[in-house]
Write a structure and sequence with these properties.
This protein has 86 residues and is an alpha+beta fold. Helices cover 36% and strands 21% of the residues. It has a four-stranded mixed β-sheet with strand order 2-1-3-4. Strand 3 and strand 4 form a beta hairpin. The longest helix has 13 residues. The chain starts with a strand and ends with a helix. It binds FE2/S2 (inorganic) cluster. FE2/S2 (inorganic) cluster (FES) binds next to helix 1 and helix 3.
Length: 86
């Protein structure tokens, strides 16, 4: 089965905009998806400055897909979508 790599941005902008809540993914994801998904935190993904606006933070990367204004639900949904692709 395909492996999904989840990176939660822990840079200042995303952290302030709520990525600290996304730490729960580290508990939720392994329980739900077991070994198919790996979650880790990352320094600024560079999205907050390249878009020139901060309103879409926090950002989470699910493989190559960037989830904007990320919530636990949005990230879980994207993981499921990617796992079901194959
Ligand atoms: S702080 Fe998250 S993309 Fe920059």
């Amino acid at each position: 089965m395909k492996k999904v790599d989840v990176k939660v941005c822990m840079g200042t902008t995303c952290f302030v905009m709520g990525s600290s809540n996304l730490q729960k993914l580290i508990d939720v994801v392994p329980r739900k998806f077991k070994d198919n998904v790996e979650v880790s935190g990352m320094a600024c993904l560079g999205m907050c400055s390249s878009s020139g606006e901060y309103s879409k933070a926090p950002y989470v990367k699910v493989n190559d897909v960037v989830v904007q204004e990320a919530t636990i639900d949005k990230v879980v949904e994207e993981i499921e979508r990617q796992l079901n692709e194959h």
